[in-house]
Amino acid sequence: MKTNIIRRSMLVTALLFLSLAFGGCKKFLDIDLPSDTIAGENAFVSDASSSAVVSGIFLNMMSNTYFTSNSIGLKAGLYADELQNLDVNATSNEAFYKNALNAGIVTQWEGLYRELYKCNVAIKGIKESSGLSSKNQWLGESLVCRATLYFYLVNLFGDVPLALTPDHNVNNKLSRAPREQVYQQMILDLKEAQSLLGTAYTDGFAQPTSTRGRPNRYAATALLARVYLYTGDWASAEAEATSVIEAGTSVFDLVPHASAFLANSKETIWALSPPATGLAPDYNLYNAGAPAIVATPAALTVKTPLSQSLINAFEPGDLRFTEWVRRATTTTPASTYYYPNKYKSAVPGAEYQILLRIGEQYLIRAEARAQRNNVAGAVQDLNAIRARSRAAVPGALPDYAATIGQDACLAAVAKERRTELFAEFGSRFFDLKRTAAITAVMTAEAVVKGGAEWQNEMQFWPIRVEDTRLNPNLKQTPGY
Questions:
Q1: How many other CB atoms are there within 10 angstroms of residue 99's CB atom?
Q2: Which of 5, 83, 136, 198 is most buried, with most CB under 10 Å away?
Q3: pLDDT tens string 115-142
Q4: Domain assignment of residue 469, given as a range
């Protein structure tokens, strides 16, 4: 009973803080109500209130539109070559699918910056607070969150304003910072988080827990490995990924596909926990209990199936296709549609929305090793992923040979990333950009989609016109 009362108190504190501090937003970095400062200062006088604020950030990351109906994964999948759109009347989905974006369609910019403001309030408040027994945890978690949000911002929008303070007088005059500078800030944040966080998973009371819904040192390290990969620091990417993998199978493991996305599986490094009565957003987006057989395509309740090119990327005997792809058939005409099916459960709390998982770390290390011409080491990691995915049928997913050349190995990495990480928060879209494959792939996809002719500047999305009007230092994304 006491625990429930404390939890309710923490939730009330978080909701009060969030409603005061963020309810008056007028633009993406414009938060200037006097109550903001008061609420921010008062929110960090105790561990309970500090934890409540940070917990509120996690809650908003889970429930905000960029992880649900306007999911980064959904929109990026439509925009790139992972998903189709069957409903031309779904205006937003159709615009993303046809690569015909305008500033009014894209909502992720504002949502990500709203969460960044909350992170900056928390980081400043926690750093300046004294007497917090779990100060390191609250600060480390906030730093991981800020780095996560900036990761998606630079990969969706390119150069972005680097806001590191809750001071709106500073933020609302910011111009776009080069992506390299933003990545360097992510690295600083994640290294600081590594120094603050422990390897154990802890809850909102700073107590050990089996729940993996809050980032720990491994989460900071896994995200740092990804950032190093994206910035081309191969040696550091390999080292950080190795430190996560070498935590051992008692902590992280390539578990069977059917259980990989269950809550707190050993696949998980960090996941967002849904509310008590909620489900993983990707279950609602791609499954939602949709029937396996319907009469016509119009009767399909989920209108965003996998693209044909992604379906073709799976080899025979690949359990990722068997276990992570759902089929829906129509009788008139007789057709089959395929959907992401990594999240399968309609039971609240059975699945968390995974942000970081061990499978990706093997692929990060494989790519870093291949780039450093350690092909044998890279192949070892690729084959670990394939071994988990190999069906018990003759000839299924043969191992890559350790003698393949560097170029062939990098091509194998790209192929395995596509079939392993599909429909996971824009991974494929980001991979196409960072490997300079985006123009060739999307030029071909434009023909399939019947959309706009692909232009290289389309790889970054437009921002809100209102923000460019209110801040003369902030320029629209080139090409829009």
A1: 20
A2: 83
A3: 999 999 999 999 999 989 999 999 999 9
A4: 71-103+436-480
